[in-house]
Each structure stands twice: as structure tokens, then as C-alpha cells.
Protein: Putative glyoxalase superfamily protein PhnB
Amino acid sequence: MAHLGLVTVVVRDYDEAIAFYVRALGFELVEDTRLGGGKRWVVVAPPGARGSAVLLARAAGPEQETRIGDQTGGRVGWFLSTDAFDRDHARMRAAGVEFEEAPRQEPYGTVAVFRDLYGNRWDLIQPRPAPDGT
Structure:
């Protein structure tokens, strides 16, 4: 069986990225291993996440630095699912997370777009239950 284990977000600085993802988004620091030469293996994930997590990778050189904050060409690139949209939306706003819009209802659930500390666009989403209740 395969699953998506990690996705990478290119960051400017490990510690400022950890602070944002842990304090503002409520993620847990799963791993922070020094690899030598100033490199680190930094993994964060939402509490209770099963499978996927985010690898915070510091940009290595000018070409990668140009990707910080716009890794997906302006599109939403990450989707943070929640089972309590109002709770998480309020907590994130109180922590200074920048939302681009008010929450809206879509056929697939309740959603609002926010930006991480570098400007990457994310959806906070509470999926609508399937018709069979799952």
C-alpha cells in the first residue's frame, strides 16, 4: 500500500517557519534533525495527522529563493482539512493568519483561503459529509 508521506514547502528560515506552522497553524513539530552544513530535516504535521506531513526545506541558493511564497504559481497548493471549521478559523485568525476571504460554502464543504508566512496559498476546509454520512 502506498500513501503520500511528505510535501515540501520551501522556506527562508527553518526557525521562523517552525514558529509559524506550530504557533499560528497549530501543527506539531514531528522532527528537527541537523544534517550538517546548516541543513536540517524539519517535518511538521497537524495534530493527529495520519500519513501526510510537511517538510520545511530552506531554500538552497538564488533559484530556490525565487520560489519562496509562490511555489504553485498563485494557485492554492495545500489543503488543510478540519472537522471543526469555525474553531480552527477563529484560532488561526487570533494567531495572525491572513485569510483572503470570509468563509464560504461550496458543494464540497466550508472553505476559506489563507496564506502562510511566505504568501503560499492554502485552503482551510471542512469537507461536507458524503451522502451516505461518511
Remarks:
- The beta strands are 6-11, 28-36, 39-45, 53-58, 76-81, 98-99, 104-106, 109-115, 121-127.
